[in-house]
Amino acid sequence: MSEQAIGVFDSGLGGLTAVKELIKVLPQENIIYFGDTARVPYGSRSEETIKKYAEQDAGFLLSKNVKMIIAACGTVSSVATELKDNLPVPFTGVVVPTATAAVNATRNGKIGIIGTSATVKSCSYKKEILRLNDRITVFQQDCPLFVNFVENGFISEDDPLVQLLVERYLSKMKREGIDTLILGCTHFPIIAKAISDYLGSSVRLIDSGKETALYAANILGNEGILNRSGKFGNRSYYVSDTVESFMHTAEIFLRKIVSDEVTHINIEQVAVS
Ligand code: DGL
Description:
By secondary structure, the chain is α/β, with parallel strands linked by helices. The chain folds into 2 domains: 6-93 and 210-272, Rossmann fold (3-Layer(aba) Sandwich); 95-208, 3-Layer(aba) Sandwich (Rossmann fold). Helix content is 44%, strand content 16%. The chain contains 11 helices and 10 strands. The protein has helices at 16-25, 47-63, 74-79, 95-105, 117-122, 124-132, 144-151, 160-176, 192-199, 208-223, 243-254; strands at residues 6-10, 31-35, 68-71, 91-92, 110-115, 137-142, 180-183, 204-207, 235-239, 261-264. A 6-stranded parallel beta sheet has the order 4-3-1-2-9-10, sandwiched between helices. D-glutamic acid (DGL) binds next to helix 3.
């Protein structure tokens, strides 16, 4: 089983920020990634739709015989919380690992959370933080336009438009004096520098992709299914929209040109149980 791939999915290509971290932490693991590029964004959709899409995404990865599934999507992890109950393999979303890291990082007990509208509405990160430590004060802000900015390549910390949007979304949290900020959406690490420049270096940014990669490594270790082949792992990418659009956007998230195999699939054909 240990040589089977880890399955990672996201509403689109933002989950590649988690794949990048996973490759750093577990370079020997084979990874199968599915990005639902034909149906992104999930963050502005209804709970019912997000749950159905998440089931299809996980169903597709199971058909590839993966040994673990990671929902590298803040929105899915926040809304489709029952997904893990129906899976025959270990699973993690991004909420638990990221909230845990934030609780460990804060010194003044003031944590900010940013995510899509669906994520913030679900209060998923907030609930998990308060479950871990109910003396922490939590501030939430949905930042839906960050997703569009990143997808369209507006990511430079020197871009006045990016700076303006960062200020618009984060000025309240900055005034409240947070010392830790959860980047609760897979797209946000791409503009981490702009966010950090605005909030100042004393505010710690918690990257959901990085924390989830470390958490997944622990699960695989505990289950005794780490790949110990000693070889560098293979990566295969699947998308529901065109392969060409993947090639363009994937570079933004992985910070390199993808030379691995990329395949188009029809996700609507995956049956929901
Ligand atoms: N992947 C989503 C998330 O992490 C962002 C994009 C979307 O809205 O689907 O929340």
